[in-house]
Amino acid sequence: MDLTTPALLFPAISLLLLAYTNRFLSLAQVIRQLHASEVRNAPVVRRQIPGLKRRIALIQYMQGFGVLSFLLCALSMFALFIHGEMPGKVLFGISLLSLAVSLVLSLVEVLISTNALAVVVEDLEQPD
User: Fold this and answer.
1) Looking at residue 128, what is its pLDDT?
2) Which of 70, 75, 97, 114 has minimal Cβ neighbours within 10 Å of its Cβ?
3) Any idea of the CA torsion for 86, 87, 93, 98, to the nearest 10 degrees?
4) Is 51 in contact with 95 (CB distance < 8 Å)?
């Protein structure tokens, strides 16, 4: 394995972290709007609060594992740069595992987000 293999992950991880940051900012905006809203005690809003809390935690872990993957990828490149073939391979492997965990957490967060939308649609379907 040479130095270019882990270097291929750098742009992908950077874009992934940017996407995670955008998801966090969108969620923060939704939470702030709900807090400022006069209907914040409405049943439909109350039903979404546990999901919002879970999404905050998941995004935190998604970003953490993404950053860990990025750091391990950089350390892998450094190890390969100084001709540490085995440490470079191990660090790269752990980096890939960390990236995979981050992606799985992202999928779980998307599923929770989809459930929140289903709650809103269900409320819209209710007759007034």
Assistant:
1) 67
2) 114
3) 170
4) no
Element (H, E) at 46: helix 43-81
CA distances from 92 to 68, 78, 97 (A): 11, 11, 9
Residue 20: C-alpha distances to residues 3, 17, 60, 64, 67 (Å): 27, 5, 9, 10, 11
Residues of the chain short of pLDDT 70, as ranges, are 128
Tokens of 126: 């209710």
For residue 128, what is the DSSP state?
A: -
User: Quick one: three-class SS letters along 56-100?
Assistant: HHHHHHHHHHHHHHHHHHHHHHHHHHCCCHHHHHHHHHHHHHHHH
d(CA 99, CA 93) in angstroms, rounded, equals 10
Count Cα neighbours of 94 within 13 Å in the Cβ-side half-sphere: 14
Q: Residues 40, 52: contact at Cβ < 8 Å? A: no
